[in-house]
Specification:
2 domains, three-stranded antiparallel beta sheet, two-stranded antiparallel sheet, 11 strands, globular
């Protein structure tokens, strides 16, 4: 009886798998689930494009092995590559890839799959970091809470929307709102912060706010690094900006 079950169960699994309709997520999941590929994708969450050499350092692999992983990621349309002279620069294909990674990170934290990298950079990473094209960490969560509390952004369950007073404020801040609403991407989206276990703001508005901080030189980031640092009085100016709502 036991031997019959051992033979029949794989066949039942194969039959049920062929009957499932819709996209096959196993291919993408396998690529993201590969430790080397995952390290490279997470490195690209910093926003700026990186070379294969920089990604090889992130993954701890030889350049030849890294090139093979990148080729598969490019074929799956998880990354794109841009050639500039002798160099090839890789970045995440689009915001949907970043959003998928963002959703996976809180699941990894909940399951206890944390990286152990003690050192002075850890508090900095938790305080403020880039999450693809928007700000994450303690500072971003406080900013999100302020927007909700002061009705700059309205929250209805999982849905966020920009209020009239919020729209007026961001226009006054010099943020081009017409360009944000023209995008297919939602202007406001709650993104669960893996270190704070609470939401920060993503979407086109979250990206525009972070770009505004960088343009004002209130914040700065290094290529290939996710830690966000602040210029002279930069954090104080951000808090003053928030208090002006």
């Amino acid at each position: 009886m036991v031997s019959c079950l051992a033979v029949d169960e794989p066949r039942q699994f194969e039959d049920s798998r062929t009957m499932i309709e819709g996209p096959d997520i196993s291919v993408i999941a396998a690529l993201i689930g590969n430790p080397a590929s995952a390290n490279m994708l997470l490195a690209l969450m910093g926003g700026p494009a990186l070379t294969s050499t920089e990604l090889a350092n992130e993954a701890g692999l030889t350049l030849a092995t890294t090139s093979g992983h990148l080729a598969r990621l490019e074929q799956a349309r998880l990354v794109t590559v841009e050639k500039q002279g002798r160099h090839r620069y890789y970045r995440l294909a689009d915001t949907s890839v970043a959003e998928a990674l963002e959703c996976l990170m809180p699941l990894a934290v909940r399951a206890g799959h944390l990286r152990t990298r003690p050192g002075p950079r850890d508090p900095e990473l938790r305080h403020a970091r880039s999450c693809y094209d928007h700000l994450a960490g303690d500072l971003a969560v406080r900013m999100y809470d302020t927007f909700i509390e002061r009705k700059i952004i309205a929250r209805d369950g999982d849905n966020l929307s920009l209020t009239r007073s919020g729209h007026a404020y961001f226009v006054a801040s010099g943020i081009e709102m017409a360009a944000l609403t023209a995008s297919r991407r939602p202007p406001c989206r709650a993104c669960l912060d893996w270190s704070e276990r609470r939401s920060h703001l993503s979407g086109t508005l979250g990206a525009a706010i972070f770009a505004h901080f960088l343009a004002q030189r209130w914040a700065e980031r290094e290529a290939g690094q996710r830690v966000v640092r602040f210029g002279r009085d930069g954090e104080r100016k951000i808090m003053t900006w928030l208090a002006a709502h």
